[in-house]
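C-alpha cells please, single chain.
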Amino acid sequence: MVGNRRYSPLRQPTAQQVLIKTISEGPVIVFMTGVHTNMAIFLMTNPDLKKNINHIYIMGGGVRSKNPTGCCPKNASSTCQPQQCGDHGNMFTAFRSNPYAEFNLFGDPFAAYQVFHSGIPITLVPLDATNTIPITREFFEAFEKNQRTYEAQYVFKSLKIDRDTWFDDQFYTSYFMWDSFMVGVAASAMRNIRDEENEFAEMEYMNITVITSNEPYGIPDSSNAFFSDRKIPKFNLKKNGVHSGHVQIGIQDPFCFRGNATGICKDGYTDEVTGPDSVRVRVATRAKPNVYESSTLDREYYANFLDVLNRPQHKGRFNFTTEFPYYKEVLYKPDFKGKKLGKIVVFDMDMSAGDFMALFYLLKVPVEEMNLKAILVTGSGWANVATIDVVYDLLHMMGRDDIAVGLGDSFGVNQSYSKVGPIVGDCKYSKAIPHGSGGRLDSDTLYGLARDLPRSPRGYTFILL
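Here you go.
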C-alpha cells in the first residue's frame, strides 16, 4: 500500500501453470486453434505428464489444400492477376514469400513439429477441410434471423464486424469457419463410441510432418537461433537435420523471394511425406453436406452451429444492454453435483473472432459430453495479450467462472529476438503477420464488443478468490 492507494499483485496464472495443474489430474483432451508454443513447451519440459493427454485436436496447416481465394473469375480480363489462388496456405499478405503455410502453424513451426511428433494421437482439421465451409451469404442471413440467446447475438455481432471490414469485399468467399469447425468435429467425434466417426467432416489418415526450416540443411545462417553462433545446437538438434536450414524471419524475408516467381519458404507447412520423419495423423479433408438436400444451408455443420448457439441450456446470464443494473461482483460457478461429467478438455486459443466463436460453441456443449476445464490464451498477431480479460468477461457472462485461464508466452520457441522487426500489435512472434485489416481487425472487433460484456471479478491483474 502506498499512501491511500492499494495495488493488487499480478496473480495471472501462466499457461504452463494451468497446463501442469490440469493435466496432472488427467486424462485430458487438448483442442488447439492457435500457435503451438504453449503445448510444445509443456511437452518438452514435462515428459512424464504426456501420458495423461489422450488426444489432441488441431485446427491448422494445409496438406493437399488449394486456396480458393484470390482466383480470377472465368470471365476476367487478361489483366487479372491471381492472388494466392491454389496455394496450400492462407497467409494473405505474406503469400508471396510463403505460399505453403497456414497462420496458426506459421506462428511457431518448431513448436508445431514437437506437438505433431509427440506420439500423442492427433486429429487435424486443416485448410483442406475449412476451405470447404466458408461463411456463405446464405449462412450469414440465416444466422441474422436466428439469434435467440445472448451468446448467439455476441457471435453474430462479431461476425458482422468482420464482414463489414473484410478486405476487397470478399468476405463470403474468403472467410471460413476455421476454428469453430474444428471444435464441432471434435465434439462430434467425442460423442461417438468410436472416435473415428463424426457428423461433420470426411476423414482420412495421412503421413505428414511440419516444415521448420528451408533447404539447404546443414548451412545455418543468422536466421536460425538453434544453430547460429552455437558450438552445440540447442536441444541437441542434428547439425544437418530438418531443423538446420534457413528460418523465415519475416513476411518480407529476401531469402524467400525469387523474382516474380512463387516464394520458396515453407516454414509451417504440413507436408505429406514418407520415411522416419513422417507422423500418421487423422485428417479432415472436407465438410460433409447437409443431410437435408433442400436446405439453403448446404453443410451439416452450418445447421448444427446455429442449433447449438441457440439452445436454451447453458444460456448466458446477461445481455448487452441490461446487464449493468443486475451486475454484482460475484463469481458464478455451476453446480455439477449428481452429473456424470464428460471428458476433460483444455482449449488453447488465440484472439481471433473465430476462436471466440469456437469458445462459445464449447461452452454450449453439455458438460456430460465435454468438461471444459481450462483455457490458454496467447496473443499472436490478431490482438494483444490484454484481450485475456475478454475471455474472463465472456466466461463470467456464461456463468463459468470455474474455468481456469492461463496466459501464454508471446515468443515462439525458435524466436530470434534481435530480428523481430516491426511488431504487429503487441505480438512478438518473429513469424506473425498482419492479417485481415492490417493486423487490427479482430483486436477492434473484440475490444469494441467487450465494452458491452459484464465485467468479470477475474482479470489479468487480479483474481477474486
